[in-house]
Amino acid sequence: MSLSPTLLNELQPLLDGICEDRLSVAEETRLEELLLASAEARAYYLQYIDLHGALHWDAALASNAPEDAVTALVDATIMRLAQPSGPLATVSRDQSRARTTKAWLQRICISVAAGLILAVGIVIGNSTAKPEIAGHPVPQPPVKVIQPATPTQPTETVVADREAHHKFSQDDVRIAAQPATNPGPSVEPNQKPSAGLGDAAPAFAATPTAPDKTPFKPIRSNAGGTTAASSATVLAFVNEQLKTGWTQAGITPSPRADDAEWLRRLHLDLVGHIPSVREVEKFLADRSRTKRAVEVDRLLDSPEFARHFATIWTDLLVGRASRAEVNRPALATFLRDNFQQNRPWSEIVYDLVTAEGRTDKNGAVNFLVAHLNDGAIPATGITSRLFLGTQLQCNQCHDHPFDNSKQELFWAFNSFFQQAVVVRDEKYDPKTGRMVIAGIELATKDYDGPVYFETRNGLMKVAYPEYRGTRVDPGKTTSRRHELARLMTQGDESSLATSFVNRIWNQFHGRSFTPQVDDMGPHSPPTHPALLDRLAEEFVQSGYDTKQLIRWVCNSESYQLTSKFSEGNSKDNPEAGEIPLFSRMYVKPMSPEQLYDSLVVATQGQLAGGPTLDQTDKTRDQWLRQFVVSFDTEENDETSTLDGSITQSLLMMNGDLVREATSIQSGTWLHKLLSSRETETERIQSLFQSALSRPASPKELAMVKKLLKSAANHVKNAKPENAYQDIYWALLNSNEFILNH
Questions:
Q1: For a designed S-S bond to 462, which of 188, 196, 275, 309 qualifies (C-beta 3.0 to 4.6 A apart)?
Q2: Which stretches of 37-77 are assigned E, i.e. beta strand?
Q3: What is the pLDDT of residue 85?
Q4: What's the pTM value of the predicted model, to 2 decimals?
């Protein structure tokens, strides 16, 4: 990201102003123009808001002002704003302006706060109080109360807001009450309404009851896992949409990848490592016209598929860094078992959101255990981002600048996690004389009512648990996480499904349908909306069948193409800022795990100390963690220095891993190859097939033979095995090896 000095000088004061709520209408308009005209400005804005918001919130929490002084100040501010001549008497609630931008951006709605929202129901240090504004109740509309689903009740379908495209709706709010087995909430006819929300909060039963622990099950449109449409029909639609995009853009797709290139790509994407020499030879010798589809099915049914996807999602859910409270092996085992059984994605997510128990007994609990710090702020952001494709962290401190979502949205979602608590089981250690942690447990605590948050102008507001227009009963007898999981996984139109489809397409194609795989919404329209919607619809109808979705993606025409440019698609170049059209396969760097496992396969298990990849888990994790950098942020961020970086290049050239892989010591793969009775040509072909998953071309073969001869004739005291060692080192450090193409 690079901002010109002129743009930065104009942008900085405007950003300061919007964070302090002091911009004029003209200044707001100018800020919108700058952000819409420059991707660098938008990126700088998001970074600035993230830092400024965190500092603002920390400063508010660190305030040492007496409670009565804070309360008096807030009350006085509200009374002044509420006067007949005050701002609240004349200002409208929101102002929205729509602007036409570039073709790919289409139409973006920029909501600018034109006034202050009257906040009532302020509670400072007392979560059960129900204050009023100067003793006068605020009139509120009546509340519609519905019952949540139980095993004997049908689940109410929440109609999604298609136009908002996976953003949670702020309108048409409904209240989800307690299960029928518990006394339901009642709204007294003459009850004084609670302040603080546009819709009145319901009254609840005076006598609390025990929470209903019966888990809600996500809806599966087809429990058998079959699709409503045949795979051929879905694939035909996918290919038709892709070809339509190519035709409209006036481009010609790249040629079909040859079998060796495609097989290597498929293995890296599906099982996380390059194919073995034997697998390459068998596939290249197969003359069946359906061998690619057969290979997809074979790998999907292999234990290595479940292992690879468990690794991907363990990294996404809890990161690569080692955390004392998180049991990574237990989480990885939970995910591996579920992917191996092809359990519906909706049910996996349901378990991750609702799990309870010890981290070593129930692997699913480790997801939330890793993110319940800082008032569950990290849990709020990562749950929405990973499972729903929605970036909520921007809403933590202010309204979103590029769509209509409000600050309340973040805290309404955050409210679902307020009943979850991490419990540390401590016991006395007679050897040290100290208390030590014997186990970590995710449990449920009593929590009722809303959460409280502070706006930019210093007002305290409340937010009740709410998801896409359905507000859940905030009483202590409600299992909030079960209600959230039920709402996330029900219905035929699912943000959960669309987000997962977008992520899977990104994983296999190197690019998603949206600029950012986890930032979907009206501000980020997809490149192929009909294709994304159809795949999401079919994914739901299949019963959230992960393997079936992957079959559609891997058998699509775009996945069959080579990564090489052709004369007709040079402008399909997302790296240069163009919209991805998937007319070729985009090149991806290997992940650290793919790199390690591929070296294990290339050397036939010598790095793992055994013939199978399962034996690499411990040594691989130890190797990876030395390259992980964690940041002490509210999002528990981390980064890897071994992900297509200079560090990775240096380690590949000089690191212990490659040195061990190219070792010619007794017992290594190279030593066995050079000790065999194979001819020079056969040895060279073995090197190429081991590293690059393909035989050497005639030109390459001749060149390597020339190098071997030159080394023997011109290098003093040269040994033949050293020349082979250098050639193998060069192949492992080539772009063809370290890149997934």
A1: 196
A2: none
A3: 38
A4: 0.70
